[in-house]
């Protein structure tokens, strides 16, 4: 759920769109993959939540998909690393580019904050560039 008073974010729409779409597509891929392996009782869920402070906005993209092991979590932002069986779409550079865009162009951050059966990517963006 996005906060009602979500502020505008300054930036190039194509860069920000790439970053958000990449993270959301990864979440949908994870739930789709788990659905293929699970019983009919599994309910795929992807949620997007925002938190706004005076300094920044945090956007959390969470899913209950296949998850990311602690060993893999150290690799996911490295170029050409992929967990996908077939090299698809961004061929293992999606999270690398997303991290680079957010850090270098927006002084932001992206990190993994997973707990038990939930994988959560957190994107942090400052509300001003001072």
Strand order across the biggest sheet?
Answer: 1-2-4-3
Question: Mind describing the biggest β-sheet?
Answer: 4 strands, antiparallel
Q: Which percent band covers the strand fraction?
A: 15-25%
Q: Give the tally of structural domains.
A: 1
CATH class: Alpha Beta
Task: Please count the beta strands (DSSP E, at least 2 residues each).
Answer: 4
Low-confidence stretches: none
**What is the straight-line distance between the termini?**
29 Å
Gyration radius from CA atoms, angstroms: 15 Å
Name given to the CATH architecture? 2-Layer Sandwich
Shape: globular
CATH homologous superfamily name?
Histidine kinase-like ATPase, C-terminal domain
Helix share bin: 25-40%
Structural class category: alpha+beta
The ordered string of helix (H) and strand (E) elements is HEEHHEE
The DSSP helix count reads 3
Q: Enter the CATH topology name.
A: Heat Shock Protein 90
Mean pLDDT metric: 86
What do these coordinates show?
The structure is a single chain. This protein is an alpha+beta fold and 130 residues long. The chain has helices spanning 13-37, 70-73, 94-106; strands spanning 46-52, 56-63, 109-112, 119-126. The longest helix has 25 residues, at 13-37. The radius of gyration is 15 Å and the shape is globular. The two termini are 29 Å apart.
């Amino acid at each position: 759920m996005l906060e009602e008073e979500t502020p505008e974010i300054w930036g190039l729409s194509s860069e920000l769109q790439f970053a958000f779409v990449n993270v959301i597509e990864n979440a949908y891929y994870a739930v789709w993959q788990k659905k293929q392996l699970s019983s009919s009782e599994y309910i795929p869920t992807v949620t997007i939540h925002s938190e706004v402070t005076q300094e920044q906005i945090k956007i959390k993209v969470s899913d209950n998909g296949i998850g990311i092991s602690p060993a893999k979590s150290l690799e996911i932002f490295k170029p050409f690393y992929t967990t996908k069986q077939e090299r698809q779409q961004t061929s293992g550079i999606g999270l690398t580019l997303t991290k680079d865009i957010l850090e270098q162009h927006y002084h932001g951050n992206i990190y993994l904050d997973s707990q038990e059966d939930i994988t959560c990517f957190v994107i942090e963006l400052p509300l001003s560039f001072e």
